Amino acid sequence: MQWTNVSEQNVYQNRWFRVNLADVELPDGSHLDHYVIRLRPVAAATVVNAADEVLLLWRHRFITDSWGWELAAGVVEDGEDIAAAAAREMEEETGWRPGPLRPLLTVEPANGLTDARHHLYWAEEAQYTGPPQDAFESSRREWIPLKLIPDMIARGEVPAANMAAALLMLHHLRLG
């Protein structure tokens, strides 16, 4: 039951994304038009300290008009190494430079609409370098005990699916 992307034409683009209209052939031979959003990869990172606390950002997302906890994240620039982008974003948004990053998981948050891949990393140490360069990205940055994460997700305090998945994976890796 595979759908086939016969062709795409660009409808709109800017430096962040492209919107294309795809001609999709269904398994029965019929065709349908389907919009596709093409995005650069996203890299995210956090650190878990010796006390099993995770560094998170509390931020507002205007599109959904919601508040929630997130990892520092952003798009990977052309030619940039994904792990390096994750480290850069973490330092810019939190003021903490991560130690060696470990891959946590890669997810496709909305693969029925976009080709976005989110690559999430974590470190076991970080160095504070000063106030965040991109302080406008969040209202605050806090160390949250990992043991609280599942209940926070259940209460809707981590609304982004990619962030919830990463935090649950960290909880599993560190606390079992």
Summarize the structure.
With 176 residues, this protein is of the alpha+beta class. The protein has helices at residues 82-94, 149-154, 161-175, and strands spanning 4-13, 17-25, 31-39, 42-47, 53-61, 66-70, 72-75, 96-98, 102-107, 118-123, 126-128, 140-145.
What does this entry look like structurally?
- The structure is a single chain.
- With 176 residues, the chain is α+β, with helices and mostly antiparallel strands.
- The chain has two domains: 4-39, no CATH class; 42-175, Nucleoside Triphosphate Pyrophosphohydrolase (Alpha-Beta Complex), CATH 3.90.79.10.
- Helix content is 19%, strand content 43%.
- The strands form four sheets. It has a four-stranded mixed beta sheet.
- Strand 5 and strand 6 form a beta hairpin.
- The longest helix has 15 residues, at 161-175.
- The model has no long low-confidence stretch (mean pLDDT 96).
- Biggest β-sheet: strands ordered side by side in the sheet: 7-4-10-9
Name the helicity range: 10-25%
Number of domains: 2
For this structure, the CATH topology of the largest domain is: Nucleoside Triphosphate Pyrophosphohydrolase
How many distinct beta strands?
12
Tell me the structural class.
Answer: alpha+beta
Please give the count of helices: 3
CA gyration radius, whole angstroms: 18 Å
CATH architecture of the largest domain, please? Alpha-Beta Complex
Strand content: 35-45%
Report the sheet with the most strands, covering strand number, pairing sense and barrel closure.
Answer: 4 strands, mixed
Cofactor: Mg(2+)
GO molecular function: hydrolase activity
Organism: Streptomyces arboris
Keywords: Hydrolase
